[in-house]
Structure formats: C-alpha cells, structure tokens
Amino acid sequence: MCFNETYKIPILTTHVFRITFNRTRFEQRNIQSINLLATIIDRKVLQFQNNSDQIMIKIDLSNDHERNQTIDIDLKIKAKYLNRTLINYNIKTIDINEQIDLLNCSVEVLTLPPQLLRTKIFLRSIPFIVIFISIQMGILLDIVVLKELVHRPIAVAIGFICQYGLMPMIAFTITKIFQYPPLYGFGLFAVGCCPGGSTSNQLTVIFDGDINLSVLMSFVSTLTSFLMMPIWFYTLGNYAYLHELKIIIPFQSLMRSLATTVVSLSIGMIIVYFFPKLKPYVHRIVKPVSILLLFYFFIFGTYVNFYLFAYINLRMALTTPLLPWVGYILGGVVAWIFQQDWIRIKTIGIETGIQNVGIAFLVLLYSLPEPENHQSTVIAMIVSYISSQPFYIILLIRFIRKKCFKKKEVQIKNIVEVDVKLKDELENSSKSMIKFHQEVDHDLQKVPLSSIV
C-alpha cells in the first residue's frame, strides 16, 4: 500500500495518483471501512483537484457489493510549480470488532517542465535558423580581411581575453555581491563561461560592426571552449558553488555547434565564390532579416517559456542582466584601451556580452538532478531574453530619429522649393519690368520732338 517510487509530473497538467488495496485480504481481516487522509506538503507545487492541499476519502466495505479483486482510490493532483514535494497519506482501517489499524505512507513527486507542442516547434526551429544565419554570414565574409585578422590577431586576442577572462569573473562577482543561492549562482556562472553565440553576428551586422572579426571571434571562442570551460568549472565553479557536484560539460554539443558554424560558413563562402553577384543582394536584406529573427526569438521564446517567469524574483530580474550589459561596456573599454577603431570596439563589445546560452542550458540540465536542473535554467533564460534589450532600445531610437529627420528633411525641401519658386518668379517679374521699360524708352526715341511739343 506504500510506494517507494518517485513520480514525475509535467507542470500545467493533471495526474491521477492511484492507491490500490487487495480486497481479498481485507475480507479475510473482516475490514468494514477504510479512511484515507492525503496531504500535500507544499501546496505551491501541487494541489488536489478541489484546489486544496488535503483530501479525505472514506470507503464503507460493508455496503460495497463490488466483486473486483482490488479496491482503487484515485487522487487527482495538479502540478503547478517546478519543484519537488511529498504527498503524505494516512490509511485507517476498522474491522467488525471496531479495531483500528493505522498506516502512514508518503510518496515523492517531482514536477518537470511542460511538454507542449509550441516548445518542440521552437526548439526544433533553432538549429535551422542558426544554419541560415551562418550561411548569410559566410556570404558576407571577406577573405582578404580574414587573412589580415589571422596574420595580425590583436583584435581576436582582445576578444578572447574579454570572453574568457572578464565574463566568468563578472558572473562570479554578481552572484556574490547580490548573494545568489548556490543553485542560481552556478546557473549564472555557467552562462558566463560559455563561448560566443550566433546572435552576436546578427547584432554586428545590424549595428555596422566588423562581421569578419565577429565570425572569427565566435569560431575561436567555440574552439577554445573545450579547454576554457573545464578550467573554470572545475576550479572556481566547483569551489564557489557546488563542492560535491560532478559537473558534466557537453563536449558533443560543443562539437556539434563548432561543426555547424564551420560547415554553414563554408557553404556561404562557396555560394558567393560561384555567384559573386549574390553578395550585394544578401548585404541588402541581411539587416531586416536579422531584426526579424531577433524579434522571433524574443516574442516566440517568451511565449514558449512564459511559465518560467513565475520563478524570477525581483533581485534576479534586476541583477542577472548585468552580466551581458557589463560585458558590452568592459569589452568595448578594453578594445578602446588597445587603440582599436570604433567599428572593432563595437564588435568586440557585442561579442563579449553575447554568450551561447544553449551550451549553459545543457551544462545545467546534465550536471544537476531533477527538478533543480530545470530551476537553474531560469537564469540562462533571463540572460537570453534580456541580453539584447539595450539593442532593441537603440533600434527604436534610431527608427524614431530616422522618421523625425526624414520629416524635417521633407519640410526643409518644401521650404527650399518654395524659396526657389519665389526667387524665380521675382527674377521673371524683374526681367519683365526691365523689358517693359526698355520697350517704352525705345518707343519714345522713335517719336519726333516737334510732335511732342
């Protein structure tokens, strides 16, 4: 009658928890009634169907004419919150002699993320979008500039130092200053140790950065992540957050990410080699396409993971975005200190602040037990959604300024046209008056003076 197994239930669903008794055994013991009292320890995580954390069921066997071999009691529970809790249930049996037997049991329930169709669509669309973006970037690459960057890798070295020197320490500092719990602290630290992501290439294109440097930095950071991530995780990460945890680094996913980037970029470079006239068209559409994809990730991603916003408190919501935002600023400052031009300062700042959050998701999912692994990904979700917010604001300001300046330009153009028109009319009028006076003078010269007298 007591269960030793652990139940796993997706949140936002209703699950039937069945307790089964052997009818024959009860009849042999002359049991007349069964009273069951079930209590949920944390009602924030689970609730019974009657929206309470406690339910009582009574079965009178003296009037029960069913001849089934078992007696089943179904408890319908609703999973509401991502966590773990216990359901305690007390079974009281009363026989014909009024003798009472008590049995206390409990079962552990883990609540997991919902298995929704929209989630599957969103996750399966990401690899195809990343491939499409990488092919576009490959078409826009300039081999001559890439060779120069490889031969003089100062900018790439600055980006590497910012990526794997600054970002992990920024994440560590934020978690300690604002006193994150170890679970969420490790979540932010994992994000800070990840290589750059493809979003940085899109933002570099949108804000007129150096796409060649951006792509090369993303490639180098992904390649060196095989060494740098273990160094950070097994030293500072293990010491500061999770002493006894065996951290699992998804090397297979890193290899897949690296292969996807290299193959997609190569495809783009091959396409532009055989069809060089295609490059201007891609250059013309890459900005609007990148903006649309950014909004797709933000809007659809928010819709898919909306349930996770319940796990974000005000402190995390205000401080977690500091990781990418401070990364942008410090990355740009370091590039400025090393006397890089404005285009490369922008590029290095963007590459520093944008992380491949998908790698952090995998590290957290495979390194932590359920459901703590899913809870810790809330931090990565905040970073993925909030990291690009300053750029959305900049895009909005640029759009408004462009519209306002365009309106002013039209007004100025109209004023200039009116001035030109008035000037032309005045000149024509002056010419007419001069011509009229000349004609009058000419006519007067033809008239004899005696006739006038």
In short:
By secondary structure, this protein is an alpha+beta fold.
Task: Kindly describe this structure.
The chain starts with 6 loop residues before the first strand and ends with a helix. The protein has helices at 23-28, 117-140, 143-151, 154-177, 182-192, 199-206, 211-240, 251-274, 278-304, 314-319, 322-337, 342-353, 357-367, 372-386, 389-446, 449-452; strands at residues 7-10, 14-22, 31-40, 46-48, 54-60, 70-79, 84-95, 100-112. It has 16 helices and eight strands. The strands form two sheets. A five-stranded mixed sheet has the order 1-8-7-3-5. The chain folds into two domains: 7-112, Immunoglobulin-like (Sandwich); 117-397, Na+/H+ antiporter like fold, CATH 1.20.1530.20. Helix 4 (154-177) runs antiparallel to helix 11. With 453 residues, the protein is α+β, with helices and mostly antiparallel strands. Residues 449-453 have low confidence and may be disordered. Helices cover 63% and strands 15% of the residues.
Provide key terms for this protein.
Na+/H+ antiporter like fold; disordered C terminus; three-stranded antiparallel sheet; 453 residues; alpha+beta; 2 domains; 16 helices; Immunoglobulin-like; 63% helix; five-stranded mixed sheet
What is the helix fraction of residues, given as a range?
A: 55-70%
Percent of residues in beta strands? 15-25%
| Name of the top-level CATH class of the largest domain | Mainly Alpha
In round numbers, the mean pLDDT is: 81
The CATH topology of the largest domain, please?
Answer: Na+/H+ antiporter like fold
N-to-C order of helices and strands:
EEHEEEEEEHHHHHHHHHHHHHHH
State the shape: elongated
Per CATH, the architecture of the largest domain is Up-down Bundle
Overall number of strands: 8
Number of domains: 2
Instruction: Count helical runs.
Output: 16
Calculate Rg over CA atoms: 36 Å
How far apart are the first and last residues' alpha carbons, in Å? 143 Å
